[in-house]
Each structure stands twice: as structure tokens, then as C-alpha cells.
Specification:
113 residues, four-stranded antiparallel β-sheet, 3 helices
């Protein structure tokens, strides 16, 4: 996902362009993304992961079985480990399908403005 292109948004959430993720982050621009926080307390591991919004939507609505997420884990000893991995719906705390449908419907409505 390093060369991933993301849509740039203004502060009214209007699409104003497209750029590489690395450029967007370097310039501090608003952009579309879906962040996933996973906490594995029993293993003493916490981390921050991200996925493309479309990938997350397809996973949580049953279109895709697995998606790629990337980010980092912080181990109990403080070591930070960058990683990318494939996950499925079973890797998340699940809600009813209607919850995800409503969530992505609202997100898409905001992004379509």
C-alpha cells in the first residue's frame, strides 16, 4: 500500500484531488482512510492499523473475505514492530450487519459531497 493513491479532502469533506499517501502525510492533508485499532490485551500487544475505506466496506458487508491492513504493534516491552497482514471479519469484534451497512452509508454520504 506504500504507493497507494488517496483522495484529498478539504475541511468541508469535499474531494479536491488525489495524491500519494506519502505526499499527503508529508503535507498534513485531509484524506480518505479507514483506521482500525486492534487491542490484544491477553497477549500484551496494542497497535494501530489502517486499511483502505473501500476494502473495509467490502469486508464488513461480506463482499470480501480478507483485506490487507498495515500499521504497527507495540509489545509489552515497548518494542514497536511495523507490519502488514491480511485479516478477515473473524479478526474483529462483530456487530450486526445492519450496523455496518448504516456506518458505511453515512461515511459514503459524507464523502460524496
Amino acid at each position: 500500500m506504500e504507493h497507494e493513491k488517496l483522495r484529498i479532502l478539504n475541511d468541508q469533506h469535499e474531494k479536491i484531488g488525489v495524491a500519494a499517501r506519502s505526499d499527503i502525510h508529508a503535507q498534513g492533508l485531509w484524506h480518505e482512510t479507514f483506521h482500525v485499532w486492534l487491542l490484544k490485551e491477553e497477549q500484551g500487544v496494542a497497535g494501530l492499523y489502517r486499511a483502505r475505506l473501500l476494502d473495509a466496506q467490502q469486508l464488513f458487508t461480506g463482499i470480501s473475505e480478507r483485506i490487507e491492513i498495515e500499521g504497527f504493534e507495540v509489545r509489552a516491552d515497548g518494542e514497536r514492530r511495523e507490519e502488514s497482514k491480511k485479516v478477515g471479519i473473524h479478526d474483529f469484534v462483530l456487530h450486526e450487519p445492519a450496523y455496518y451497512q448504516h456506518l458505511f452509508q453515512e461515511i459514503n454520504q459524507i464523502l460524496s459531497k
